[in-house]
Write a structure and sequence with these properties.
five-stranded mixed β-sheet
């Protein structure tokens, strides 16, 4: 029989990806900044992954569960929020954003090492890659509370 004091809650990483210099393409990073101001369980760690690719591998491998937040270019209306459970790089949406190669390579590397954590990918559809703009469009910024609610739903399911 397990004693309550022996039960340990696993740590969960929320990793925001994106290039904040390209407006809405930085929605993952901006979502992490938004989440830093919200109420989250103590077992959650937040990380601005930027366009980090392979450099994030050591961080990714520290966790059993990771929630990734990223922009995507797809056929959904801008601001659409979806959750994908990728196991391989091929499971990611076909039209990812500018750091597509680095993120897919990161996932493939963790998979090859047989240390891929359980992934929950929250994608926010953006209209296009904007030229040099440090701010989210109003349309996408209004979706940050929805990303937060999606994170809470995933945490509740985990």
């Amino acid at each position: 029989m397990t004693n309550q004091s022996e039960i340990k809650t696993k740590r969960i990483l929320i990793l925001g990806m994106g290039n904040i210099l390209l407006g809405d393409e930085g929605v993952g990073v901006r979502a992490v900044e938004y989440l830093e101001k919200q109420k989250l369980p103590d077992y959650v760690d937040l990380l601005d992954g930027g366009t980090g690719g392979f450099t994030l591998l050591p961080e990714l491998l520290k966790y059993e569960e990771v929630i990734l937040i990223d922009a995507t270019l797809d056929d959904n209306p801008p601001g659409s929020i979806r959750v994908i459970k990728p196991k391989f790089a091929s499971d990611f949406p076909k039209a990812m954003s500018t750091h597509d190669i680095g993120l897919k390579d990161l996932i493939e590397s963790a998979s090859i090492l047989e240390k891929l954590p359980e992934l929950h990918l929250i994608v926010v559809t953006i209209k296009d890659i904007q030229p040099m703009d440090l701010h989210l469009s109003t349309e996408i910024e209004k979706k940050l509370p929805g990303v937060y609610q999606t994170v809470l739903k995933i945490l509740n399911e985990i």
